[in-house]
Amino acid sequence: MTYLRKLLTIGLVSLLFACTSDFEDINTNPNRTNVGDIKASGLFEPLLYNGINAWQNYTWFWNNELIQFTAFTGGGTRQEHRYFIGDQNWQSVWNTYARYTNNALHMYDLSVAQNDQSLQAVALTLKVLYMSNLTDMFGDVPYSEAFQAREGGTTEPKFDSQKEVYEQMFADLETANSLYAENPVFIKPALDGMYGGNIQQWRKFNNALYLRLLCRVSGRDEMGSATKMTEILNNPSKYPLFESNEDNATVRFSGADPYRSQFANTNENGFTSSGRKLTEQLIKMTVIADDFGNQTYEDPRLAIYGKKNPNYLVNGVNAWKGTIAGCTETEQSAADAGTSWLNAAVFCRAEMPASYMDYAEVQFILAEAALKGSIAGGELAAKQYYENAVTASIEKWAELGQFSETPVEISVENIEAFLASDLASWDNATNKAELIANQKFLSLFWIGMEAYHEYRRTGYPELTIGRGTVFNDYVLPTRFAYPNTTMATNNANAQEALTRMGGENNMKTPVWWSKQAIESGN
């Protein structure tokens, strides 16, 4: 344990030293660890564990607040659900994704020098994972010229268009898939808390990520997403994909220091009850009520996601109640009365696993593609993919039900009942595209920023913007703005990117693949 803790510490120090104001500083930081100083495997473990914990922190801090899974209504210190977001926040998000990309590339360089083909492939997968989030949060970003200063390259990298960024990410995923295909040996499988060194599972994750990104740009015909998805599905030996929850890109924590989840040391008050409450939007999507307001049915995952307010003085009817995302400070007290909480008993465990991507997401992607005619099968195939997806999501969460204060058990019959309910029934849905999008949205609960990305892509679910969201003029942020440091140190390239994106450096300019940008003709 002492040796492994030292590895994580070394890696964390490397990650921290890489955290600077933007791409130029990252690449010229004199404190960074140089290629050859440590083994590639010495970077892998902290990149995996620290990376997924950063991922989890963002889903709690940013994603859930932006798209109304939760709302911090416990005071005025945190107002993300009201879009009180500024340069310090943009800088932090930019730095985080940039530094994890930088360390993935560092690991790639080490693995090439040390002839470790397995980590070459893994490094490319992780590079794309983090760069995709950087571009999806900001729009056009450096890619082709990013992180090159240490080899004597530019310190003012150009901002590639988002189309160009996606094309380069696709190329990196193709290269990684080819490397995985040679079945290289993962030299230290004990370091791999996700797949135990199983290269074929890493390959499935790589190609599942490929599908995610093809889906993201599927509204842009010029990207050829339908053709590539069909090629992937028709060539399972060349492009293996997730086949069940066993393939989920999930990092497992032992619970022993330093292998502990992000919220292991967080109590219920700090995690949720004093601030972050479940919202009425989430309750609306997971609970059925009769004409008299009596709650008659609920999504079986809800009691694992959340917890009813136990105070009978404010919740005497023992109901699920959500606060109002984006409410005004005047509305806040009344909105919070009896409000349900995140389920700290589930999430604040040292062993709580964390996911980068699930099998359910792959099935939802295929359901949407089949319904649109982008892949073969039509509505019949779309229904099967959809029901596979919902089932997989519920089964994933069912494994965690045992950790609730009141354990939750979900049977096959419970899943079948849900698929027949008004919340999830395929046959009863009048708008099946909306049904797929809404259930995909719920399945992405606690998976990075994915629900936020999907909302901007599809426009679903239909969110009500609160009257307190004055800080962005009642507009749900369409992107994060480039940090001031980046605007100051690489202004010409950043300004060119903004001109290309057709807007100002604010949270109202839509990203290129979004529904808003496509419908506006940008």
Please summarize what this structure is.
Helix content is 50%, strand content 5%.
SSE arrangement:
Blueprint: H1 2-17, H2 23-28, H3 40-66, E1 70-72, H4 87-113, H5 117-138, H6 162-181, H7 199-216, H8 225-234, E2 249-251, H9 268-273, E3 276-278, H10 280-286, E4 287-289, E5 295-298, H11 302-305, E6 306-307, H12 329-336, E7 341-342, H13 344-347, E8 354-357, H14 359-372, H15 378-398, H16 412-420, H17 432-443, H18 450-458, H19 484-489, H20 491-501, H21 515-520
Antiparallel strand pairs: 1-3, 2-8, 4-5, 6-7
Helix pairs in contact: 1-3, 3-4, 4-5, 5-6, 5-7, 6-7, 7-8, 7-14, 14-15, 14-17, 15-17, 17-18
Organism: Tamlana crocina
Keywords: Lipoprotein, Signal
Protein name: SusD/RagB family nutrient-binding outer membrane lipoprotein
List keywords for this structure.
522 residues, mainly alpha, two-stranded antiparallel ribbon, two-stranded antiparallel sheet, 21 helices, 8 strands, globular, disordered N terminus
